[in-house]
Amino acid sequence: MRAPLDPDMFDPVCPSDLSPIRVGDKWAGMIIRCLEQGPRRFSELRVPLRGITAKVLTRSLRALERDGLVRRTAHAGRAPRVDYELTPLGRSLLGPMDVACEWARRNWDDLLDAREAGAAPGRARD
């Protein structure tokens, strides 16, 4: 049996939120990280992704499945369940994501400064 996902896996002020390098939508990279150690159920994914609604998680999982990064497996039986897991293609993203996360960590202060400057009141928008 796999260990449960850490509810604090994603810090609300995580460098991944500042990274301009994204896979899919806002949540896709975090979903991929949640599936890194093996298949998970929908309810398990919601634990560390506490800011996501069920509707948005469903949409993100469907997009990842459509793109060939995640496999959805329905298990029949007395207690039917659905598991989500990374495909080999999805697993191949883990290395590039590690590089992007490390880049965000190294550039954290510059990213924060740029984000704050971009949010300054009265700044002209292009």
Textual characterization of the structure:
The chain is built from 7 helices and 3 strands; from the N terminus they run ααβααββααα. The mean pLDDT is 85. The N and C termini lie far apart (52 Å). The protein has one domain (15-118): Arc Repressor Mutant, subunit A (Orthogonal Bundle). Strands 1-3-2 form a 3-stranded antiparallel β-sheet. The longest helix has 13 residues, at 54-66. With 126 residues, the protein is α+β, with helices and mostly antiparallel strands. One of its GO terms (molecular function) is DNA binding. Residues 14-112 form the HTH hxlR-type domain. It holds the Pfam family HxlR. This is Transcriptional regulator, HxlR family.
What oligomeric state best describes the polypeptide chains here? single chain
Rg is: 17 Å
Average pLDDT, all residues: 85
- Main sheet summary: 3 strands, antiparallel
CATH top level assignment: Mainly Alpha
- Topology as H/E string? HHEHHEEHHH
Strand order of the largest sheet: 1-3-2
Give the CATH superfamily: Winged helix-like DNA-binding domain superfamily/Winged helix DNA-binding domain
Number of domains: 1
Number of DSSP-assigned strands: 3
CATH topology: Arc Repressor Mutant, subunit A
Organism: Micromonospora echinaurantiaca
Keywords: DNA-binding, Transcription, Transcription regulation
Pfam families: HxlR
InterPro entries: HTH_HxlR, WH-like_DNA-bd_sf, WH_DNA-bd_sf
